[in-house]
């Protein structure tokens, strides 16, 4: 221990961990640091580019979806308004509806809508539209997933 403190062992291989000089180690470390920095910069730039592309693509998809949904809601509200007007004109609310033709959800109006995929005719137009707007729309009769509903006209 006394030899180490006096500096006699400082030049021996015991204290050195490599055969390189201090200047070579500093140069090697600075080169590796620059390689890591530039590599990180390149990969970071690529990652930001990919994220920007995906955000832009999803934003346009969202805007298209939102405009389609607005037009669909406008069409549905127009369709419901015309249907309720037609029902009032025909005086459907005043006549007696047989139990076999009542909507299974509200039990007030005549069955008018068939669900696309299962084909069941069990709901009035209002209840069918409210069933379609649910998070996971299902047929009230068979609980199968539905895509949309179709208005059925009596002959």
Q: How would you describe the overall organization of this protein?
A:
The chain has 155 residues and is mainly alpha-helical. It has two domains: 20-94; 99-151, Herpes Virus-1 (2-Layer Sandwich). It is 53% helix and 7% strand. It has three helices and three strands, in the order ααββαβ. The protein has a three-stranded antiparallel β-sheet. Strand 1 (113-116) and strand 2 form a beta hairpin. The longest helix is centred in the middle third of the chain and has 69 residues, at 22-90. The N and C termini lie far apart (110 Å). 10% of the residues are buried.
Question: What's the rounded overall pLDDT mean?
Answer: 82
The succession of helices and strands, N to C, reads HHEEHE
The number of helical runs is 3
Number of spatially distinct domains:
2
In short:
The chain crosses the membrane at residues 35-56. The chain has 155 residues and is mainly alpha-helical.
Q: What are the defining features of this structure?
A:
155 residues, mainly alpha, Herpes Virus-1, 2 domains, 3-stranded antiparallel sheet, 3 helices, rod-shaped, EC 2.3.2.27, Znf_RING
Could you outline the blueprint of secondary structure elements for this entry?
Blueprint: H1 2-6, H2 22-90, E1 113-116, E2 121-123, H3 125-132, E3 148-151
Antiparallel strand pairs: 1-2, 1-3
């Amino acid at each position: 221990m006394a030899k180490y403190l006096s500096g006699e062992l400082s030049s021996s291989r015991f204290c050195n961990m490599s055969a390189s000089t201090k200047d070579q180690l500093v140069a090697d470390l600075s080169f590796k640091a620059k390689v890591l920095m530039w590599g990180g910069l390149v990969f970071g730039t690529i990652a930001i580019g990919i994220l920007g592309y995906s955000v832009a693509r999803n934003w346009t998809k969202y805007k298209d979806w939102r405009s389609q949904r607005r037009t669909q809601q406008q069409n549905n509200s127009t369709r419901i308004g015309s249907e309720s007007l037609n029902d009032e004109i025909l005086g459907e609310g005043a006549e007696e509806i047989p139990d076999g033709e009542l909507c299974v959800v509200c039990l007030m109006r005549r069955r008018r809508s068939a669900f696309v995929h299962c084909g069941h005719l069990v709901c009035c137009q209002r209840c069918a539209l409210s069933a379609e707007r649910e998070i996971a729309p299902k047929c009230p009769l068979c609980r199968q997933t539905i895509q949309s509903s179709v208005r059925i006209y009596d002959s």
